[in-house]
Specification:
217 residues; three-stranded antiparallel sheet; PvuII Endonuclease, Chain A; 37% helix; 2 domains; 8 strands; alpha+beta
């Protein structure tokens, strides 16, 4: 019987896999420049690696994230532009976080024309806890308002000024929640779009120096 995967083991194996994969030359990656294709290759290989060693609940498109039992999603991105897309659910995600943790693999891809192989050097493997997945500028702006004795009207005005996609009713409800339960500082940059665009430069910079952002490798 294979042991059951835990979030602790997931983080440990992410580090081990990153080291292993960084030394692996893959023929099917040679000449591939599509970041989505690279990410799909890496995610499938990592999940296969885990499945050989552990039992765990496999994510699905319906559940939306890779490890639903742990509330963790995988993001694979190039160091040239460390970002990825994310399904838009609610403007609340920019303030209170995505609702799940993010395991980020940041790679640098090189091709070897002699062996006709591609290699992914995993430069950063970072685990961002759910409570740190909100937008940095949004959360720090809100916290400044609260520190400056701001009230509900100030918070609603802030959301309107920053064009958060909310109705008046939802903005009022969010403002009440902020007053009752101020958000923690998030470290993602989340761009408004039909799909959120998550950017990871700050996460890479802060990993291992602030609580909730763990540098695994």
């Amino acid at each position: 019987m294979k042991p059951k995967l835990t979030i602790k083991l997931l983080r440990e194996e992410a580090s081990h896999f990153s080291e292993r994969e960084s030394a692996f030359a893959e023929p099917t990656l040679f000449g591939v420049t599509d970041g989505k294709a690279v990410g799909t290759y890496f995610e499938h290989k990592f999940r296969a690696y885990l499945s050989e060693r552990y039992t765990y609940e496999v994510g699905s498109s319906a559940k939306g994230i890779d490890f639903p039992e742990f509330g963790v999603d995988i993001k694979v991105t190039s160091v040239k532009q460390p970002q990825s897309s994310c399904p838009f659910k609610s403007a609340r995600q920019k303030i209170f976080g995505l609702g799940y943790s993010v395991l980020v693999f940041v790679y640098e891809k090189t091709d070897d024309s002699k062996t006709r192989t591609g290699k992914l050097n995993i430069l950063h493997t970072i685990f961002v806890e759910a409570e740190r997945t909100a937008d940095f500028q949004t959360t720090t702006g809100i916290l400044r308002i609260l520190e400056n004795q701001g009230n509900k009207d100030d918070l609603i005005a802030f959301m309107q000024d920053h064009m958060l996609p909310t109705s008046d009713i939802e903005a009022s409800q969010i403002a009440d929640e902020i007053v009752a339960n101020p958000p923690k500082v998030g470290y993602l940059t989340i761009s408004n779009a039909l799909q959120w665009r998550l950017q990871y430069s700050r996460v890479i910079e802060k990993a291992g120096t602030v609580s909730g952002i763990h540098r695994l490798r």
